[in-house]
Amino acid sequence: MARAGRLSEPVERVRSVGPVPLVRIELVADETERTPSREGFLRVRRLRLRTVWPDGSVSREFRYDVVDRHALDAVVVALHAREGDERFVLLRSALRPPLALQGERAPGASPVLWELPAGLVEPDERMRGEEGLRACAERECAEETGLRVAADAFEPVGPPFYLTPGVFAERVFPFAAELAEGHVETPTSDGSVVEEGARCVLVPLREALAACADGRIADAKTEVVLRRLAARWARGEGS
After folding, report:
1. In this predicted model, which residue has the larger pLDDT, 194 or 108?
2. Could you give the domains of the chain?
């Protein structure tokens, strides 16, 4: 057994995180059953693939299922406000039916999570780069909270990240904007049942982080963005 603090091969000790290997994935065949895209929100693609390694060698073929949808990317939005020296962040309750349908993992657990507002980036928004992403953040805030925040008020909170790269290529683009007194309306919603009855609350950032630590906030993207914001403010950066 290796001594404490020592790792044996093939683990390599490095000083910094460098670039990943330049690996390619080749599509050998798409064996997905053809289903009209209008039938359902998500589509499972059943593929045969092979890996081409940096030295040019090729792996044996393997089967892999991936999830696809018309809009792969999403934004997540941290709306925040200040009261004296206290920072507050807006959380929204979100109905997540899979948590109920697979409730045997946690019997009696609610299928509702506290999350930061978030939503899909439509293809036309994605084509406009960061301008389109900010426009998406503005639209999602109106839909999910009723708060009218101008697109140019949103600032990126670090680079995009992946949540479930083993099955889904969704990238999440994090943004933040400070709330000021302004026009508030009823959330426009997207018209779906899962958007009905949502509740929005402003809570101290320290309480939100404590809720992430003890599991009351179990949404990964929410925790990632809240911790990025907290680190940024601790360094004296941002508003």
Report:
1. 194
2. 24-68 (no CATH), 74-234 (3.90.79.10)
